[in-house]
Amino acid sequence: TLLASSAASDVYKRQVYAFIASISALFVYIYRFSLRGTLNPMIKDEKIGQNIVLLGNGPSVNDAIIDLLTTNSVYAVVNFFALSKYYQRLKPRYYILSDGAFCCELSFNTMIADLIEHINETTKWKMSLYIPYRSIKGSNIAKMFTNPLIEVHFYNDIPYEGKYVIPALRDYLYRKGLANIDIWNVIQAGIMLLILLGYKTIHLYGVENSEPNSLKVNEKNQAGYIHELFYDKSQSNMELILNEDGSPMKVCQILFRYYKTFQGFMDVNHFAKKQNCRVINHTTASLIDAFERV
To answer: Which end of the chain is less enclosed by CB atoms within 10 A, N or C?
Structure first.
């Protein structure tokens, strides 16, 4: 009887804890939303067909691009893709930005300024560009896109995820574009947006995410990795991974980031399946194991 009473007490405590944690997760989301969210996310573009190709910036894009150029696919690209020689040939329908550097004025640098200028100058077709709504209160990057052919849209990147969220509420907020997974990678943001736009099959290329394979520690105990980009071979040297204050990250911190990144892909695929959307990864050397492979 004593054991049964103790077990019942433990169950009750766990239930109380779960309830409090659930309320706390909701209040954290509401607080974040009040600071950098919008009730009117601009995810209203008309989709073109059922299938779309989402291109990352991994080195395998160089191998896939010739075949892709022979198709009449609809394309979505991310972050610095416009700096590649293929940008004007592919004429992507969507351009997705998802990096703190695009949202914080203090993070702006020459490379970002050059990217924006290049997009403005070279885009000769109608294109929808998506940026996090929080950028309005940071860099306000939207006003820098002056090309009339570029339609700037905003999306919410405020996370509502985890063990103690309310599943039905989470799915509703995702469908309405009012919340997101905990985004650690621009491809995650891209897939979530394309699902909301109504695409039912998303083909991924250039999404290696293989940085863990090249993680190294130098003689100064500084951790970094070889970050290869298909459009910039000069960035194949070791790149240190830094905290916001400029100090080097420790390996345990980096591995935690990788964990969050790959868990994020699992969360994306979970939502995709709920929306009857297939996400197919065509990247041979990709470490992402969340999606269907070809």
So the answer is: N
